Amino acid sequence: MIKQQVSNYAVLTEFSHSNLQPNGDSASPKEVIFHILPDNSQDVSILDIGFGAGTLGKMVKSNQATSHWHIDGVDGWEPNCQNLDLFNQRIYRNVWHGLAQEIPSSELSKYKSFAFLM
Predict the structure, then answer these.
(1) With contact defined as beta carbons under 8 Å apart, do 93 and 71 qualify?
(2) How far is CA 65 from CA 91, 98, 114, in A?
(3) If one looks up domain 3-9+41-116 in CATH, what number appears?
(4) Which run of H or of E encompasses 106?
(5) Could you tell me if 23 and 52 are in contact, meaning their C-beta atoms sit under 8 angstroms apart?
(6) How many angstroms separate the Cα of 84 from the Cα of each of 5, 11, 13, 53?
(7) pLDDT tens-digit profile of 45-63?
């Protein structure tokens, strides 16, 4: 079952205490995100599926041409969805814990790009 953890940069639930740390990254070429659209100055909402430790979100937000983009994420590893560093830095606007296919289609239709980083 999918559970939204962060909405509009605000943490929705109290996180459980765990010794597990946010983790995960892919070997995929993340820089391709900067070449998908002909004009990076437009407003874009991206869903980062399996965002792990937030590498893609950090990269997008630290790039002057794309720092205004909205990055949302979904991940099945709970510690990734409780990464307060990402949320305090306002890297990810909305975060869901669960499987991407469980996100309602009404939410998915809002995204222009999907980042499948495997």
Answers:
(1) yes
(2) 15, 31, 18
(3) 3.40.50.150
(4) helix 105-108
(5) yes
(6) 11, 8, 12, 11
(7) 889 989 999 999 999 999 9
